[in-house]
Amino acid sequence: MSTNKQKIEDLLERRKQTKLGGGEKRIEAQHKKGKLTARERIDLLVDEGSFEEFDMFVSHRATDFGLENESYYTDGVVTGHGLIDGRQVYVFSQDFTIFGGSLSEMYAAKICKIMDMAMKNGAPVIGINDSGGARIQEGVLSLAGYADIFQRNIMASGVIPQISAIFGPCAGGAVYSPALTDFNIMTKNTSYMFVTGPKVVKSVTGEEVSVENLGGASVHSTKSGVAHFVAPNEHEGIALIRKLLSYLPQNNIEDAPILPTNDPIDRLEDILNEIIPDNPNKAYDVKDVIHAIVDDGDMLEVQPNYASNIVTAFARFNGQSVGIIANQPKFLAGVLDCNSSRKAARFVRFCDAFNIPILTLVDVPGFLPGTAQEYGGIIIHGAKLLFAYGEATVPKVTIILRKAYGGAYDVMASKHLRGDLNYAWPMAEIAVMGAKGAIEVLNGTEISKIKDDKARAEFIAAKEEEYREKFANPFIAAKFGYIDDVIEPRNTRFRIIRAFQSLATKKVSNPPKKHSNIPL
Fold it and tell me: Using 50, 70 and 90 to split pLDDT, how confident is the model at 2?
């Protein structure tokens, strides 16, 4: 019978073997692809020495197609918990060196276990995906494993933050777990996601497409909107996860951490008094406004390359985490369309679920017209954003920088959608439509009767100026209490911070219901 010392030596040897995953050759192959191993990723992600692994000695129970002769500890996924900046997180990291990271019954059970623990203890879950998909040899057991994970993703939604890192292949049923989580991070050239691969696409549709063009990071960050962030490599992707978590609370009943800052709350930014062009049709970059007002000029933009006509970002004001939604005049004049409405609505709902106050910076000429938008469901997508703002109960501060026209004025966190404090810059134009379009409607008959070009131009200019004075300025809305104050642009940071401070004890609840029926 073996001694205690031998048993301990046996344990240490088993641990050593386990940490080699599928073996040195497969680890080397992983590195040659520019990819880290499952354990290397975890070591970079969590604070040094903080990771505690679960289920290290789990292996599969399959006996078909030769699997009875090939088995590895962990069964292809490393799971456990650790700390990020001293805060607890639960992690699973798929190991491509073992069966190509393919998901099995026991592999899924390991993931489900840490997700259950995360829910019980109110901590975020981070999933690092690098898998060839379902383990075919296990048949329906692997499919059941995916569904078990999906159900937990759904139950955890809005309760704990869920972040997915795609650092390799993620195909077939595997894509739906990341799709159900709050944020997806992909890496350039080494990650891809799709429901069906290039070979299946060709056999079904006859279309030839590369892996990268079908489901690479560039596609999902610019066209589909599936990826919220793209990193040039895994090291930067992992650093991005750590930064993202710094803006988020542990769960839906806590607040995000407040980070100390030396940035004065009453810092004035004279540049903001001049940033809006005199020509209402001229663009500027709303990110310049954001950088000028947030703590230390720092923000983390979400989906920066998708629907660029709206900006969604996390930033801080006096150390407090805030979600920012801003129309971007630099792209499509900041107009709302199908994609920008969906993008912003999703972000608003995330912030509301996790007690993150919302700042909305408005410069919107309306909704994008045209058959493409109408056929694409702009009515439904615009309603999503409207619904998200109206449903949100977190503190909401809105500043109209320039244009707020038509229904888009209503949608962008107006006072009528329970905006708490709504301010406007003095150059703001709040109206049913712009002066040019309004005059064409109101004075079209008179204009058509003027034959002299110069006289017609002078008449139009006079009427447009009259319209602006009567309607397209912030003081009319302020007269009715729809704008709480007209503020000097350079003082915007101070007014925002004071606004959120005053709303710190806000308590609003929605009517009791099973759940809302947001227009999907």
Answer: low
**Quick one: average pLDDT of 409-438?**
91
Distance CA(238)–CA(491), nearest Å, equals 36
Q: How many CA atoms lie within 13 A of 11 on its CB side?
A: 7
The answer to whether residue 407 is catalytic is yes
Looking at the fold, whether 147 and 53 belong to one and the same domain comes out as yes
From the list 173, 197, 225, 377, the catalytic residue is 173
Residue 104 is encoded by which pair of tokens? Answer: 């099995």
CA distances from 482 to 236, 358, 478 (A): 44, 18, 6
301 and 239 share one domain? no
pLDDT at 43 over 90: yes
Is 520 a domain residue?
no
Catalytic residue flag (residue 173)? yes
Out of 408, 413, 428, 431, the active site residue is 408
172 is an active site residue: yes
pLDDT at 138: 79
Residue 464 has pLDDT above 60, yes or no: yes
| CA proximity to 486, closest of 434, 432, 427 | 427
Task: Give the tens place of pLDDT for each residue, 145-187.
Answer: 999 999 999 999 999 999 999 999 998 889 999 999 999 999 9
What pLDDT does 1 receive?
53
Determine which one of 122, 225, 407, 437 is catalytic.
Answer: 407
53 with 113, same domain: the answer is yes
Mean pLDDT across 234-242 = 98
**What's phi and psi for 449, nearest 5 deg?**
-85, -15
* Pair (399, 420) in one structural domain: yes
Active site residue 216: no
Residue among 280, 268, 350, 365 nearest 312 (CA): 350
CB 311 within 8 A of CB 287: yes
Q: Which of 172, 323, 390, 406 is catalytic?
A: 172
- Cβ atoms of 164 and 177 within 8 Å: the answer is yes
285 belongs to a structural domain:
yes
Domain boundaries, position 447 = 435-471
Of 397, 401, 385, 265, which is closest to residue 330 (Cα–Cα)? 401
